[in-house]
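DM from R.C. (forwarded with permission)

"hey, sorry to bug you on a friday — could you get me a structure for this? deadline for the figure draft is monday and I only need the backbone to look sensible"
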Amino acid sequence: MSSIRGAGQVARPRYRRQVVQHGALRVSLVTLFGSGVRSSVRAVALLVWVLCIGFPGAGTLAQATSVPVLSVEGAIGPATADYVVRGLEQARHDGAPLVVLEMDTPGGLDLSMRQIIQAIMASPVPVVTYVSPAGARAASAGTYILYASHVAAMAPATTLGAATPVSVGMPGMPQPARQPAPAGADKETAEQGAEQSPSPAPADAMTAKQVNDAAAFIRGLARERGRNAAWAERAVREAVSLTAAEALDLRVVDLVARDLADLLVQIDGRKVSIAGVERTLETAGLQPVHRPPDWRHRLLGVIANPSFALILLMVGVYGLMFEFSSPGFGIPGTVGAICLLLALFALQLLPVNYAALALILLGFALLAAELLTPAFGVLGVGGVIAFMAGGLLLFDSDVPGMGVPLPLLFGISLTAGAAVLLGGGMALRARRARVVSGREALAGARGKVTAVGGGQAWAHVQGERWQVSSGQALRVGQDVEVMGVQGLVLQVRPLDDEQPDGPRKETT
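My reply, with the result:
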């Protein structure tokens, strides 16, 4: 291979550049052709190694052809927050170009909303929130999430707003009517007058703190994303709402799109800021791919439902109560323990009024006392009333999706009351019933004399052989009735005075 070109000169090895095509990437390989076979083997081995291990960006490029779509439907709670946070993390891991949150929500919990917003603000992947389909809304917590997104979009015939915060156990504030704009005023003058109208005074210090905090929070989001901060504060303080067209005119949202395909077309080329760095969205040719909640998030959503949590609490307490009162196969205790633990997990996720929880536990205690010591229904009625009052106050009915429906609460309370009354009635009848076991059950029982001799007599009573004693003479085959029990001897009396054939003796 080597050749001598001149005295003392050795020809340098020859290099050849080879280009390897792998997916969308081209890799240039430089192979050294030196000593024949060994160089060829080395080149082939390098090529096989590259093809086997692949390239780090190959999977990312495959995923970059689609846009993950996360569905946020119904009240925003712990399950929704976990679903969105995990979805954003998965999109970052897959190298997705952006994430679309398709939203239709009446609002939800403040804690869950803030978890979603923090995940959006920290996400390296652009987040587009799209209020869809037609007729959907982004009320209350949904408005905050819409303001926090890199791109805010709405479908026609959708609404947003009504972002006034509410507290657990407190009714919503009554809102004073806004002063109408002067007659003949143009649209811009009417909007300015509405923005400058005085905000309603909060009812108390706690409400004022919550409203002011929420107003400052949404103002900060609006200024971060370059949206209408004045209207955002009005949505918090006055609970105003907008349609999609009005929101676009007031710079509350960035665009109005008919569907997801139209949304991707409109945002193509739009610039967004992520961590202070301006990026351009390139969505041409991308396909939306829906990623619905998996079984874990669906199960968490069921457990964290206030109605289901209350049912789990009731089943858990009554299961343990029945297990302790009448130990058996352990089925009530096992089911009760599982349900009680799930209920405690759900209550830990939800905003709970602990005074109401104490009322519910008091109701359970009174119902249990009625079962154990019947008090003519007084304890049972008190338990039902305490349970209903606690159920009404346990969760905040002003937060969408966080209250317990009244029909369900009445049904549970009446069912518990009926069960207590039925159990108490059965216990009272059992107390008044005749004893059917033990020595006391032998009084009045009848039997037949089977043997007489040696001053003793024996009779067959209730399937057992007893020694009997009577003040009258007994004979074999004679029917007797038990009058009492003295030790291991039954006191009996003969039921007839006929004298059948056979020995006859008095027994003592």
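R.C.: lifesaver. Residues 4-55 form one domain.
me: no worries. The two ends are 133 Å apart (CA to CA).
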